[in-house]
Structures are given as structure tokens and as C-alpha cells.
From TrEMBL:
The lineage of its organism: Eukaryota, Viridiplantae, Streptophyta, Embryophyta, Tracheophyta. InterPro entries: ADH-like_N, AOR-like, ER, GroES-like_sf, NAD(P)-bd_dom_sf, Quin_OxRdtase/zeta-crystal_CS. Keywords: NAD, Oxidoreductase. Pfam families: ADH_N, ADH_zinc_N_2. This is Enoyl reductase (ER) domain-containing protein. Residues 84-379 form the Enoyl reductase (ER) domain. PROSITE patterns: QOR_ZETA_CRYSTAL.
Length: 383
């Protein structure tokens, strides 16, 4: 059996072969509904779909990035000049390479990842606090430092790094994001890439793992507490489950997803995997110390929290005592979590339909906007 995911995309100008992936460490069975159409076809094997993708071209990509002896003045980037649907996404190969401020480094981007905020921002949902158009989208990056500002203290040229380039997700995110050959980022927002992860795996982590960690911290989560994660298979939820278990010492973890992703939830550490297509989690007799709502069901989430417990919500309307926060990017969070990543306790979950090549950016956006992605959607190679 072969499942396909295809999406009509606007005509774009660059073409690159898809890289092949050849080693995996987190495997589970996943079923996707077959969809019809057209321009690009991704194939998924019927079972044991690899979630952790190790690109054979990784060392080559790093070598190429570090080989950059002279930095060009112009680069290729994904750009939009107006808010709207995926059709506003264009490629421009004459975008100025960003200037590096004193506290910033210039990164040769090897891989970038999409987050729902990239789609919402492009749709104009945050236009009141956005940077001016035209925009090069992209928050998450993994790449190689090719230039450092005067005040940069630790990072140096040739370092392999990763991070979420926007300190505040919604307040003036950078005009020149990570979906480009180069991006300029404050040193404090970055960490060295975990040595055991390739650039594809690393690119998918920053915003999601920072959100997962900050949310758990804000609830006061600690060893021995129980947690229910709503949307355990998404970019954030897949990491909330793992952090709750391996970093915070949860006593019990429950999580929701659709039928095909229940095994994934268990492989990530969930004791109870709830199929939201068959059960209403709010009808279960069990109550939790913390409910982490990564889908926008705060009204129901507050019904299953213990008295005195916490409900953290990432999106949608908030029902007391639930609360919402917006993630702050912080390289120190990544540094704190690097040992858990390097020991293999925390595993990146990369959507098996990817990585998407740079020429498939619009398709990758269409996919994240289905709200069906598993883990992270990564773009590689760039361009
Ligand atoms: N406030 C912040 O700072 C912050 C930070 C990060 C993200 N967010 C927001 O948090 C949300 C989650 O982000 P994300 O990156 O994790 O999203 P994501 O990866 O795009 O989430 C996709 C997942 O949602 C699942 N899903 C869809 N409907 C569901 C339902 N009714 N119950 C349970 N799971 C369901 C899908 O699983 P199935 O296919 O099984 O349905 C899919 O795996 C987004 O709205 C995002 O904008 C906010």
C-alpha cells in the first residue's frame, strides 16, 4: 500500500532533487488518508514510517556551508509582499543578505522548519505587530555561522547552530526570516546543534521545544505530577510529552490524537493515548494536575484539571483558570535541553512527508495549514 499527499501549489522558480534519508531511530505506524491531485507526490511506506530523518547529505551540507569563503551581497529567499494565501509566496534571488548587528551572527541556512505561526502571520493575523512587508518568513533555523558581530562572545565562524530567530513570536518578528540562504540572528537566541542530530532534525526543534518547556515551567510542573496533553502528535505536543516524562519526571501522561497516531503518543511516553475521534477526554473520570492545551480546547480542558491544578493554552479562547502565553525564544533553553537530546532521551519528530525542498515551500505551508502534520515540517535543502 502506498499513501500519497499531494497539494496544488503555485508555480515556483527553483527545483531541487529531494534528498534521500537513510537512518532512523524513532519508528511507528501511521496511516494517512489518501488525497487526490497533482503537482508533487510524496510517498509513505505503509508502516514503520520514519519520523527521525537522518540525511545522508548532512555532512556535505555542513561542509558546503562552511566552505563559503566570501558572503554574497544577494541571496535567494522565499518572500511575500502582501498578506494572503500560499499564492503570495514567491522566490526572489536578489534579496540582500542581512547585515549583522553587533550581537548577531550570520547563519548559512542548511534547514528551516515551519510553525503554524508562519502561516497565521502570512495570512495577516498579526499585522498590527508585524514587521513591515515584504517578509522572508521562517522562525526555526539550523545552519552554520559564517560571520559574527563585534559583541558576539561564544559563537564563531564554522559553528553548527540552531534556534528560533524571533525572541518574541508576535511582536516585531524579523523581516528577514530563516526561509532564505542566510539569516541574521542574535547569539542569545542560538545554541550549538546537538552533535547527534542532523540539521533537518535540529531545525524542527527550537520554537516547539521552547514552547513546550516554557509552558510546563509556567504551570509549575514538577516530578510526580500528572498531565494531559491535548494534541500530543503535533510539533509542540510531541515534545511536551517527552519533556514531561524525561525532564520533569511526570508520574502519568495522557495525550490526545486521531486513531492513526495513538502508537506515536505511546512511543513518546504517553501512558494513556486518547483517540479524540472516538472519545471525549472531558468525559473520562480521571483528573490531571496539569492540562497542556496545544489545540484550542481550553473550555473542555478546565473540566479535567484537579482543583488547584493548571491549564495552559497555546491558542484559542481561554477559560479560567486556564491561561495563555506566547513563547519567548531563548538559546539558554536549548542549551539546557541539549543533554537530553544528545543522550537520545528526547527525540525530534519530523513529519514523514518531509523534508520538503526549498522549491516546495508553498506545498509545505499548505500542508501545515491542514492541521494534520505529525511533528515538524522541515525545509531542506535551502535553496
Ligand atoms: N502561544 C504560543 O507561544 C504558541 C507556540 C507554538 C504553537 N502555538 C500554537 O499551538 C498550536 C499547536 O502548534 P503545533 O506546532 O503543535 O501544531 P501542529 O504541529 O501543526 O499540530 C498538528 C497536529 O494537530 C493535531 N490535531 C488536530 N486536531 C486535533 C484535535 N481536535 N485534538 C487533538 N489533536 C488534534 C493533528 O493530529 P491528528 O492528525 O491526529 O488530528 C496534528 O498532528 C497551534 O495553534 C500554534 O499556532 C502557540
Amino acid at each position: 500500500m502506498e499513501t500519497t499527499m499531494t497539494t496544488a501549489v503555485p508555480k515556483l522558480t527553483t527545483l531541487h532533487p529531494r534528498i534521500s534519508s537513510n537512518s532512523f531511530s524513532l519508528r511507528f505506524s501511521l496511516t494517512f488518508p489518501a488525497k487526490k491531485t497533482a503537482l508533487v507526490k510524496h510517498t509513505c511506506s505503509p508502516s514503520h514510517i520514519p519520523l527521525r530523518v537522518s540525511a545522508s547529505s548532512q555532512s556535505q551540507a555542513a561542509a558546503e556551508a562552511t566552505k563559503v569563503s566570501s558572503i554574497p551581497s544577494e541571496m535567494k529567499a522565499c518572500v511575500y509582499g502582501e498578506y494572503g494565501g500560499v499564492e503570495v509566496l514567491k522566490f526572489d534571488d536578489k534579496v540582500s543578505v542581512p547585515e549583522v548587528k553587533e550581537d548577531q551572527v550570520l547563519i548559512k541556512v542548511v534547514a528551516a522548519a515551519l510553525n503554524p505561526v508562519d502561516a497565521k502571520r502570512r495570512q495577516g493575523k498579526f499585522k498590527a505587530t508585524d514587521s513591515p512587508l515584504p517578509t522572508v518568513p521562517g522562525y526555526d533555523v539550523a545552519g552554520v555561522v559564517v560571520k559574527v558581530g563585534n559583541q558576539v562572545k561564544e559563537l564563531k565562524e564554522g559553528d553548527a547552530v540552531y534556534g528560533n530567530i524571533n525572541e518574541k513570536a508576535l511582536e516585531g518578528p524579523k523581516q528577514f526570516g530563516s526561509l532564505a540562504e542566510y539569516t541574521a540572528v542574535e547569539e542569545k537566541l542560538l545554541a550549538l546543534k546537538p552533535k547527534n542530530l542532523d540539521f533537518i532534525q535540529a531545525a524542527g526543534l527550537p520554537l516547539a521545544i521552547e514552547t513546550a518547556y516554557e509552558g510546563l515551567e509556567r504551570t509549575g510542573f514538577s516530578a510526580g505530577k500528572s498531565i494531559l496533553v491535548l494534541n500530543g502528535a503535533g510539533g509542540v505536543g510531541s515534545l511536551v510529552i517527552q519533556l514531561a516524562k524525561h525532564v520533569f519526571g511526570a508520574s502519568r501522561i495522557a495525550a490526545t490524537s486521531s486513531t492513526g497516531k495513538l502508537e506515536l503518543l505511546k512511543s513518546l511516553g504517553a501512558d494513556l493515548a486518547i483517540d479524540y475521534t472516538k472519545e471525549n477526554f472531558e468525559d473520562l473520570p480521571e483528573k490531571f494536575d496539569v492540562v497542556y492545551d496545544a489545540i484550542g480546547q481550553c473550555d473542555k480542558a478546565v473540566k479535567v484539571v484537579k482543583e488547584g491544578g493548571s491549564v495552559v493554552a497555546l491558542t484559542g479562547a481561554v477559560t479560567p483558570p486556564g491561561f495563555r502565553f506566547v513563547v519567548t525564544s531563548n538559546g539558554n533553553t536549548l542549551k539546557t535541553l541539549n543533554p537530553y537530546l544528545e543522550s537520545g532521551k528526547i527525540k525530534p519528530v519530523v513529519d514523514p512527508k518531509g523534508p520538503f525542498t526549498f522549491s516546495q515551500v508553498a506545498e509545505a505551508f499548505s500542508y501545515i495549514e491542514t492541521n494534520r502534520a505529525t511533528g515538524k515540517i522541515v525545509i531542506h535543502p535551502i535553496p
